[in-house]
Design goal:
Elements lengths: L2 E4 L5 H22 L5 H4 L2 H5 L4 E6 L5 E11 L2 E9 L8 H12 L5 E7 L3 H9 L3 E9 L2 E9 L3
Parallel strand pairs: 4-5
Antiparallel strand pairs: 1-2, 2-3, 3-4, 5-7, 6-7
Length: about 160
Amino acid sequence: MNKIMKLDLQNGGTLSELWSLQHKAYRLEAEIIGFHEIPPLMETRDMLSRSEELFYGSFDDHGDLMGAVAVLEESPGKLTVTRMMVNPDFFRQGVAGKLLEYIFDLYQDMEQFIVSTGKLNVPAVTLYTKHGFIPAGVEEVAPGVELIEFHRNGRL
């Protein structure tokens, strides 16, 4: 049974584990969408430690970090899922879905949840659609690279 908990980025071990996970996960997304300047890949450990986002990690029975999600309330009542990452060793085991459900439960008073991903990142698009997100817009962030933004009403 996996456990989800808030991550303390001031803990050096936790920070290193999260940074490593972030690079594994976002390198794969970069390959999928053909864009290697994804902001999390440019981030140093120090930059990550100063993030204003709140991070939650999913751990297996051995204490290994299977995945993590980060959120930020950028305006009242609206929570943005700023990062979603799963260790490739744990792909297709429901880790990302459990992290999303955890966020929905934890932040049940939110009016809206927002998330973005590369339009070509089919696994992520499928995940968000499955969990009630609806496409809200597409933005070209680099030549031939489109981000799709999804919204999900809160208090469902």
